[in-house]
UniProtKB/TrEMBL annotation:
Pfam families: VTT_dom
Designated name of the protein: VTT domain-containing protein
Species, as recorded: Chlamydomonas incerta
Main localization of the protein described in the UniProt heading: membrane
Region of interest called Disordered, as start-end residue ranges on this chain: 250-271
Amino acid sequence: MAALAASLAALLSPAAALAAGDAAATAAAGAGAGSSNPLAGLLSFILHLDKHLAALIQQHGANSVYGLLFAIVFAETGLVLTPFLPGDSLLFAAGAFAGMGQLDVAILCAVFIVSAILGDAVNYAVGSKVGRAAVNRGLVSREHIAKTEKFYDKYGGKTVVLARFVPIVRTFAPFVAGIGSMPYGRFAAYNVGGALLWTFLFVGAGFFFGNLPFVRKNFTLVVLGIVAVSVVPVIYELWAARQEAAAEAAQGKGKGGEEGQSGGGGKPNFA
């Protein structure tokens, strides 16, 4: 993970320098700040994906960009410590560059599909081997695990597919599947199906709509819109979970027992 962060930081610095000539003054200032502050650099990369990807392609060539995109998607789906990396918006932006002919759409789809499948497979394996111990030792957010288990309780095994479209849950769904001992054959089918649907939908959207004049002039707003739409299910599930917890607490007080309290300690429902 340190190597990935180092390589990303190394790429962002020259990218910011190249983008400064074409970007507006505010975007250039934000990119310049990213070279000294990793968090600001990551935020600039997410909000100005179009400018950074253009600079990276010009500076390093398409093949290097394919490698970077593979690493980002693999880390975002395969490592429970990096759920903050871009997902949906990255696929959309890359699809837009494929629409301009700067990236090959077939290679791009293959990169995203393979990295998403491998990332989930690794995450599942880690969850099955050390997941429960990692949660018990506080190495992994209990809140994120509980949130993901809520999705499993509601949607069953289809969570592996649906989670592709939900930030944070996308990162923790395969990990929780491994903890809960979902049969790997079943998980693999959902994994492959979800990766195909996720890739074709967002890369296709970027390929066909990413170069419309309105989108190109307001790319940052489009990225924020994609992120906002993606987090709506998370906000709803958090609200629903609080409502359910309050109802269960009220029932528990009425019965004088603790059976109504949800501890999140059981295995998720994979039906």
